[in-house]
Amino acid sequence: MGGVTDTREIQRTLDLALRVGEMLLSNGAGAADVTATMSSITHHLGLRQALVDVTFTTLTLGYQPSFDEPAYSLTRHVTHRETDFDDLTRVDHLVTALLSDEIDLEEARAQIAQITSTGHRTPRWAVSISWGVIGSGIALLIGGDATVTLIAGIAAIGIEVLQRYLSRLRLPFFYAQVAGGLFATLLAVGVAAVNVDVNPSLVIIASIVMLLAGLGFIGAIQDALTGFYITAGARILEVMMSTVGVIVGVSGGLTVGGLLGVNIALDPDASGLARFPVMVAGAAVSAAAFAFAAYAPARILLPIALIAGIAAAVFLLLSDQELGKAWPAAVAAIFIGFISYTVSGRFHVPPLVIVVASIVPLLPGLSIYRGLSLLADDDYTGILAMITAIAIAISLAAGVILGEYVAQPLRREARRLEQRLAGPRLVGPLRARAVRKKKLDPE
User: Fold this and answer.
1) Using 50, 70 and 90 to split pLDDT, how confident is the model at 385?
2) What are the sequence ranges of the domains in the chain?
3) More confident residue, 291 or 82
């Protein structure tokens, strides 16, 4: 395809690429994936050597037809962030169709406008209930009984409703995380105060995992590994602020409990493999419920449940061998990253949908709560538990990306699409020419 010289055509091409990039970045895609996807769109539509600049809050596209002609530049600001797997999947399909010449520029512009303006068919109450299922699943994973599971589910629903209300008030997300952690902890304090025969600390742990779910751990590490250090720093700071919000809320609730004479410190021996099948089932249920809450296509829910269940089983078995927590988390994450590439192709969703949902049961809620409990009793070994939580989070994100690094070259060489490793892609086609070749010579 020759270069484009028509001004309107150039502006429309740049606008399409920016809108696609905005949708990907706002839904957690890494800067490398966003840059590669935007570059593929502009190159395929005739804008050779378009300049793509991606930061955490701004997308810029520049193009100059020749050195003696004026340059074109468009910018979009990313102000709204959410985990929406339906939009992510639909945009991914749009890009694939465009690069395969199944749709043209105008059809692509119409589709991206429809994606950005169309709501979801899933009712709001169903999403709230699914968050309750996430909390119940995590409670099962960490050894909770039926009563703990029920209370954790109620706490999770309450947190989701509370955070949605605070979002409508346009409060920063940090305060919503504080409110969520405080709500869950005060609920656990109330349960302990009325002498219900349960371990209320498990409710708090399940709530911490729920509040950590969907944060940009993977995107932050992917950006750092692929050289987008400014964007990586911004993502890491956002994740840290959100996590600190949870810690502040939970520690505030523990302080209130202490003032009331209610002790809900964690029993260090509360975990174990006595209910291994139930724990694995809890991991599977919580991952699938998170995917549902994030509007993932129904066809991918069962595969996500299976992948998360297997990964949790690997993590639990290795943790029981006294290998610590970080290495078992890394091994489980590598499995998730490796298998998600093949599964995503079969079920026509981006790998990011699978990996984000599947690591939810492995998030370090237990380590964070153990650290807070110890620090609340002036035991500074709690700092080690907090460091363990950081190590688990990094291991999960880095392990997932390593699994993608291993899986993608193997599959590409098997299909003879590429000879060169360009890095793992969690969203978007590998390369434009690979998409076109698949269309001409499918295997």
Assistant:
1) confident
2) 7-117, 124-405
3) 291
